[in-house]
Write a structure and sequence with these properties.
Oligomer: single chain
Radius of gyration: 25 Å
Low-confidence stretches: none
Number of helices: 2
Helix content: over 70%
Largest sheet: none
Length: 85
C-alpha cells in the first residue's frame, strides 16, 4: 500500500515534466526553422547579386555565372540545414 501511495505522485510529477518540456522544444524548433528560412532568403538575394556582379564584370560566360549562383545557393541551403539539424 505504501509503494502505491508513493508511485502515483511520482508518476504525476514525471508526466508533468514531460508535458512541460514539449512546448519549450516546439518553440525552439520553430525558432530554428525561422532562422533557417531567413538564411535561405538572404542567400537567395546574395545569389542574385553574385550573378549580376558576374554578368556586369563580363569575365565569365552566362553558364559560368549561373554555376556561381547555384554554388552560392547551395552553400546557403547547407547553412540552413546546419541550423535546423
Amino acid at each position: 500500500m505504501n509503494k502505491i501511495a508513493f508511485a502515483a505522485p511520482a508518476a504525476l510529477v514525471a508526466a508533468g515534466l514531460l508535458l512541460a518540456s514539449g512546448p519549450g522544444f516546439a518553440t525552439e524548433q520553430a525558432e530554428q526553422r525561422r532562422d533557417a528560412r531567413d538564411v535561405k532568403q538572404d542567400t537567395r538575394q546574395e545569389a542574385r547579386e553574385t550573378k549580376q556582379d558576374c554578368r556586369a564584370a563580363d569575365e565569365k560566360s552566362n553558364a559560368d555565372c549561373r554555376q556561381d549562383k547555384r554554388e552560392t545557393k547551395q552553400k546557403g541551403r547547407q547553412t540552413a540545414r546546419d541550423i535546423k539539424y
